[in-house]
Amino acid sequence: MIKHDIKDIKLAQKGKLRIEWAAKEMPVLQSITDRFRKEKPLKGLRLAACLHVTTETASLMETLKAGGADVYLCASNPLSTQDDVAASLVRNSGVPVFAIKGEDNKTYYQHIMDALSSKPNITMDDGADLVSVIHTKRKELLKNLIGGTEETTTGVIRLRAMAAKGVLEYPIIAVNDAYTKYMFDNRYGTGQSTLDGIIRATNRLIAGSVFVVAGYGWCSKGIAMRAKGMGAKIIVTEVDPLRGLEATMDGFDVMPMKEAAKIGDIFVTATGDIDVICKECFTLMKDGAIFCNSGHFNVEISIDELKKMAKARRMIRDFVEEFTMKNGRRIYLLGEGRLINLAAAEGHPSAVMDMSFANQALCAEYMAKNYRKLEKKVYSVPEKIDQDIARLKLKSMGIKIDALTPAQKKYLQSWEAGT
Ligand code: ADE
Known about the structure:
The protein is an alpha/beta fold. Helices cover about 45% and strands about 15% of the residues. The strands form two sheets. An eight-stranded mixed sheet has the order 9-8-7-10-11-14-13-12, with helices on both faces. Strands 3-2-1-4-5-6-15 form a seven-stranded parallel sheet, with helices on both faces. It is globular and about 65 Å long. Adenine (ADE) binds near residues 54, 57 and 347.
């Protein structure tokens, strides 16, 4: 059998059925797969992917293979792997997978090294760990690389920082910044899957709760919108005055975290920065407060401080850790502070991942065709790719839209006509 390091190959049949179920909701990716099978735009290329190993990622692996790529896959988070999917990819699709749900940090990085043993020509990242490891520990791999793609906001921020410092050694397309990615995946995907993760982990009633959302980017907007829809009272915390204003005019209470900490029942962070729920917040929280993270890395909640401050800790149910504080209050951390939507639930629904992963597939194809023209920079997704995906998605949903008339087009290009 092909190289792999997964939990249990016997889970393959369960994974196969779940992958089939998810694929039904991914018609755009399916249409790309059908074309790739004929045209083989990735023929002869080795691709290392560091993504959440989910049913949707499995469909993307099929697309890339159909395009002719030789694909290796590792996890982009120690707690987000679906072990049955990993098993099915190895047994039924012949993809070398290196990912085990709950792996420690050492194994996580070993698995990145295993994926890089493919000596990739293209990297596909979710959080920029592949790129980071290549640039720090595996520089000899740079000579094979023609380009890469990046899935998420946090990864794009890291890569732009690398480009700004002049250390990025190959071109990357920021898939996250496509309209058909962030407007849907970040907003509706994170919105729904974060609530799903909190509910699966806690089985708590959202209605009537005071629900604190840290940040008001696209992910946080989705979380606030969905929690409001379920009857919660929303508090938003922000550092950006424009976003603070936007949250206020969207009808939410806006205040500093240290004030919100005293009144919140459930807290979610999605800011991409460190220490958002900090040491002092834990001293202010009510007995029974629940907190979790939906940002890419587990840095937003000051967990090390919490561990030092607590008198006792225990797992009270799957994904729920109880911390007893010195004054007897008990507060609850979900999913080790890792992305709660993937730790305790299954990540974003397939219908939004359809567009995110259509972007990934088409950007890999774009990279294969155009890499000679590209510099060592972070590029936006070409507008045509974004438009094509939106058109295909609408079509798959049976929705038609209007087209501009020649007169309307002409009017939009003119400047002479005024009042
Ligand atoms: N990121 C968020 N949700 C995901 C999913 N379902 N599959 C892969 N990556 C994801």
